[in-house]
Structures are given as structure tokens and as C-alpha cells.
Amino acid sequence: MEQPRQTPPDLPTSLDFGFPSFPVFVLVMAIIDLVLCLLRGLFGVIAAVRLAMSPDSVAHLPNYLAYPEMITAAAIGGVGTVANLLLILKKPAGIPLGWVNLALTIVSIAVILAELPLQMAIQPEGPQRIGLATGFIFTNGVRVILVIAYGIALVMARRWFQTREAMLQ
User: Fold this and answer.
1) The model's pTM
2) Which of 167, 156, 147 is nearest to 22 (CA)?
3) What pLDDT does 16 receive?
């Protein structure tokens, strides 16, 4: 009869202490959001360079919309990347930064919502307007779903850190 495998005393596992494992959903969401934050930050930098090179490229957008979009994109890229890396490394400092990332994403969605009427106004009647509206609804619908999922992941991570802290005391 085979004996159960035992962990050597000098190599404890989290199971030895009764810790629950870090939620997989949190890790998956952190990895997904890390990729999205890196892309968002890159697009923010590209938009800033484009605006600097050709200010007329966004002439149809007032500055009060063009600049917040670039600022939120850069902030999401920076804060979100750090938050997600900390969560992947199972560091509790990732949670408050994650909430800041979430808030910045909501602000970004609101800015895009404010841009929609201006974008629609420059499109000719017909397929272009329908395509713009469809793309807006789909893209921001997915973003809202991801925001909700990320919020759930942050709550799950906070509970895991609280449980771990309580078990260590």
C-alpha cells in the first residue's frame, strides 16, 4: 500500500497552515487587466504624440474631452499595471491601487460617453453612424462587464487577505 506524500518539515505549504489558496478568479482578472492596462497606456501615449504632432487631428473634440481621455488612458496604464502586478504577486497593496484603476476606468467610460454625440455629429448619415454606435455599445458594454468582474475580483482578494491576516494572528 502506497503511503501518502508528506511535505518535509522545512518546506511548509499554505495547506499546512490552513490558508485557503489565492482565488484563481482574482489571478485571471489581474492578468487580463494587466494586458488591457498596458494596451490602454500605450494607446494613451500614442494619442498624446498624435495630438502633439497634429493638433487638428482632434479638432472636432473640445480640449475638455480630448485631454481627459489621454490622461485617464495614461493613468490606467500606470496605476493599473502596478495594481495588477501587485495582485499577481499576492501583495495587499494592489487592492487600493486596483480601486483607483477601477475608478479611472469608470471616468474613461464617462468621457467616451460624453464624446459620442460629437463623434456622431461628424459622421454622415447611414452605415458610418450605425457602425460608430454599434462599436460604442459593444466596446463599452464589454468594458462595463470587465469593470464589474474586476470589482468582484478586488472584493475577493480583500477577503482573502483579511482571512490570511486573521489566521496569522
Assistant:
1) 0.81
2) 156
3) 47
